[in-house]
Amino acid sequence: MAFPEGFLWGGAIAANQYEGAWLEDGKQPNVTDVLVGIMNRDPGIAWNEETGKYELKLNPNKAYLSHTAVDGYHRYREDLKLMAGMGFNSFRTSIAWGRIYPNGDEEEPNQAGIDFYKDMFSCMRELGMEPVITLSHYETPLHLLTEYGGWSNPKLIEFWRRYVTTCFTEFKGLVKYYLTFNEVNALFRMPFVAGGVLTIDNPADPTKPVDSTTLQDQWDAYHNFLVANAQTVKLGHELDPDCKVGCMLTCSGVATYPNNCNPVNIRVAMEAQRNNVFYFGDPFCLGIVPTYLKKRWREDGVKVEFTDEELELIKKYTVDFFSFSYYRSTVVEAGVNLGGDTSGLTGIENPYLVDKAPEPWKWPVDPDGLRYTLNVLYDRYHLPLLIVENGVGLDENLDENGTIQDDFRVHYIEEHIKNVAAAIDDGVDCRGYLYWGPIDVVSAGTGEMKKRYGFVYVDRFNDGHGTLERAIKQSYYRYKEIIESNGACLE
Ligand code: BGP
To answer: CB of 342 closer than 6 A to ligand 1?
Structure first.
């Protein structure tokens, strides 16, 4: 197996799905704190006629499991030891923006938040793990949406600059790899969470979901993300010359296959790649605002204009590497209505895929699609690639021996990792494989505990009960072997 020396082997989680402690040590709510599942269109906010603003209003009938999550805020030391036990040399998590700037618009940071992450990142280093840190993983402070409309407002760029300046300064020497916005190309699929956008000047239309946003607001957010991303690269390089700043996109949309060789469908597949992945990837990596967007803006009836200075900034400050999530592929043809969820794009079923994750989620499994994705991305961007999410969620319970025989997960990682090796052999510069959810966390898409990705099990259930104790699944030992042999045991 062709894994280079220093290949990053590890796992990835996110603050909002792992930490809990949603209001501890000064933190204020962020966008995921008001949702049970990010695909849902009913955030726990309501319009207040008197103030003329949205305000927090959680649904008393819902279990917001992320508020406690798996208590990572208090247990990260023991959890990181478990990760080190598999031989991880890297670990990805996110900084919850609201721990550092609770409402997002403060002048001064919250020291308790800084201290918390300093300790966590030091702990990773002590255990031999390189921290790979997402600056924003669906964690925009809620206040920035209710007060300013979120990322459609250019003011967010200023607040963001303040936040990342604090991170680059405070975590200098501790963090080398930063990712800017998790799966930001899901902006149009999930404007509230992935885009951090809320339309606040024309609200409370009872016929529409609470989180409805206009297309203009969404494209304004796109504009601001492009500028903010470039500024992050610039600030990162200035404040901590040793750090590398990458983008993070959901890339299931790269493996978008045409249903047949009808030339129209070949074009439709190409457009799906552009409209779902490259429209962010091209500016982030190539420093250009793609010309193919002009038609889309016309069709969407929106106005998107960049100043010369902004275009210069985007051109000059492209990312150092490209990181992405990959869960599945999809099939398209002319006229198909492309849906999507946290797995990526959902089009037509692919009859050639033999595996499907078990009920109830049944995401199609396409390990070859990962090799294809790596090749397409490398051909287009010629940047080091980092896989920062790939994994399978299963409904699992401990057996009488206090473990789980998760053979499907073993099969899943083996097949995907073999395809990473094949892509490297194809000539792709892939620097790491970070499995999603090495410890059970709250599912992003459904807000449940039942959907478990971990090599390590956590005793917590959908109704919120559980001891939070950790247990090792059988896949833990297999991933350890793969890492120990640098992939050679898969030959
Ligand atoms: C990605 C998100 C993650 C993660 C993963 C799995 O889209 O970046 O936060 O959770 O999907 O999705 P889910 O938890 O819905 O199974």
So the answer is: yes
